[in-house]
Design brief:
The complex is a heterodimer.
Chain A: H1 3-59, H2 65-92, H3 100-113, H4 116-144, H5 149-169, H6 178-202, H7 213-240
Helix pairs in contact in A: 1-3, 1-4, 1-5, 1-6, 2-4, 2-6, 2-7, 4-5, 6-7
Chain B: H1 2-9, H2 12-30, H3 34-54
Helix pairs in contact in B: 2-3
Classes of the chains: A mainly alpha, B mainly alpha.
C-alpha cells in the first residue's frame, strides 16, 4: 500500500473535521479571548495525541495481522457508511448542507447562557469530539501502512492548513467544499473497510486484483453513490411537485 | 460518554447494519462462497448507505 493512498484520505477527512473544530474555537474566542480558547483547543489536541500514541502502541503489540485487519476494517465500515450516507443525503437534498455560519451562531448563542469556564469546556469538547474521528482514521490507516507516521503527518498537515487559513481569515471557513470532500472520504473509508474486512475473513487471495481492488471499490462506491443519490434526489423533487 | 461512543460507532442502527453485513460476509466465506462475497458485500454496503441517507 503506497503512502499516498493513506495520506490523501487522512488529509481530506482531517481537513473537514478541523474546519468544524476551528468554527467552534473561533466562536468561543469571542467570549473568552484567543489565548484561553486556543488553550482549550491545545488541551484537546494533547488528549488526542496521547490517545494516538497509546492505541498505536497497543495495536503493534503482537496482534495477528488478520485480527488487526478485521478490527480496523469493521471500525472503518462503521465510520465510512455514516459519512457516505450523510454525503448522499445532502447530495439528494434530504439533509441540509453543513453551514459553518449557522454552527458559529449556535455556538455563540450557547455561550451567552454560560460562564467563562463553560466556554472553555465548549471549545475543549468541540475539538475533542471532532478530533476523535481524525484519531480513528489516523490509527486505523496508520496501523496497516508500511510507514505508520504517514497518517499522523497527514492529520497534522491538515491541522496546520486550517490554523493558517483560519488565522489569516479570522472567520468561519465557509468556502471549504465540505460535502464533496465528505463524499470522497466516505467512499475511500468504506473501500478500505470493505477490503480489509473481507481480506481478514477470507485470506490474502480473496480479492482477484490484489491492491488494485481498492481502486475498483472506490470507483464503485463513488459512481454508485452519486448515481443513487442523484436518483433519490430526482424522486424527492418529483414527490414534492403536487 | 454517549457523544464519544456515537462519534466512533454511530447509532444502534449503524451498529446492527454493519454487524449484519460482516456476519453475512463471514457466513459466505465459511461456506466457500468467497468469490460471491466480494461482489455481494459492496452492493449491500451501498444499499445500506442509501437507506441511511433516506432515514
Amino acid at each position: 500500500m503506497t503512502d499516498w493512498t493513506i495520506f490523501v484520505p487522512t488529509f481530506l477527512a482531517a481537513t473537514v473535521e478541523w474546519v468544524e473544530a476551528f468554527t467552534i474555537v473561533l466562536a468561543v474566542s469571542l467570549s473568552i479571548g484567543w489565548l484561553r480558547a486556543s488553550g482549550a483547543a491545545a488541551a484537546a489536541l494533547g488528549v488526542l495525541a496521547v490517545m494516538t500514541i497509546a492505541t498505536g502502541g497497543v495495536l503493534q503489540l503482537g496482534v495477528s495481522m488478520a485480527a488487526l485487519e478485521f478490527v480496523i476494517g469493521v471500525l472503518l465500515l462503521l465510520f465510512g457508511v455514516r459519512w457516505l450516507a450523510k454525503a448522499m443525503a445532502r447530495h439528494a437534498g434530504f439533509k441540509a448542507f453543513h453551514d459553518e455560519d449557522k454552527e458559529f451562531a449556535e455556538t455563540r448563542e450557547a455561550l451567552e447562557k454560560g460562564d467563562r469556564a463553560a466556554a472553555w469546556v465548549i471549545a475543549f469538547k468541540g475539538v475533542l469530539l471532532e478530533g476523535l474521528e481524525v484519531w480513528l482514521i489516523v490509527v486505523a490507516l496508520g496501523a496497516r501502512s508500511a510507514h505508520p507516521f504517514v497518517a499522523t503527518e497527514a492529520a497534522l498537515a491538515a491541522l496546520l492548513l486550517v490554523v493558517l487559513l483560519g488565522a489569516a481569515i479570522r472567520a468561519p471557513l465557509r468556502h471549504v467544499p465540505e460535502n464533496a470532500i465528505k463524499f470522497l472520504v466516505g467512499t475511500m473509508i468504506v473501500s478500505f473497510g470493505t477490503y480489509w474486512t473481507l481480506e481478514a475473513l477470507g485470506g490474502e487471495g480473496v480479492w482477484p486484483f490484489g491492491d488494485w481492488t481498492l481502486l475498483i471499490l472506490f470507483s464503485f462506491y463513488l459512481i454508485g453513490g452519486l448515481a443513487v443519490a442523484t436518483a433519490m434526489g430526482a424522486g424527492r423533487r418529483k414527490e414534492a411537485v403536487p | 460518554m454517549n457523544a464519544f461512543f456515537k462519534t466512533l460507532f454511530g447509532d444502534l442502527y449503524n451498529l446492527l447494519f454493519v454487524g449484519c453485513v460482516v456476519g453475512i460476509a463471514a457466513l459466505m466465506v465459511h461456506f466457500g462462497q468467497m468469490h460471491q462475497a466480494v461482489y455481494a458485500v459492496p452492493v449491500l454496503l451501498l444499499a445500506g448507505a442509501a437507506w441511511f441517507a433516506r432515514r
